[in-house]
Fold this protein.
Amino acid sequence: MKGYRYLDGVATLRLDAEACIGCGMCAAVCPHRVLVVRERKAEIIDFNACMECGACAKNCPVDAVTVTPGVGCASYLMAVWLSKITGKKTESACC
Ligand code: SF4
Ligand code: SF4
């Protein structure tokens, strides 16, 4: 999956660095190497590579990382397409 990119700035991934206990699970399970742990704190190093699979959030023992699992770009593009047809603004940037 190296080189995989997502739409810039639309992922729902969020990290609460204060809550993080540095266990490393999020970084271990992320298929796109979005996260790393440095000095016992997780960091997002490649936000736009996040595909919103939810593995990091599911495995975080303290809910320091959150994401709304979805179907990624396809859902976003459908929402934009429908908004053009219906004239209604899309509710979310993605999923
Ligand atoms: S949602 Fe998936 S791709 Fe995104 S940071 Fe978490 S594990 Fe990585
Ligand atoms: S899984 Fe949660 S607690 Fe563990 S390093 Fe990642 S964000 Fe921090």
Remarks:
- The helical segments are 25-29, 55-59, 73-86.
- The chain is about 25% helix and 15% strand.
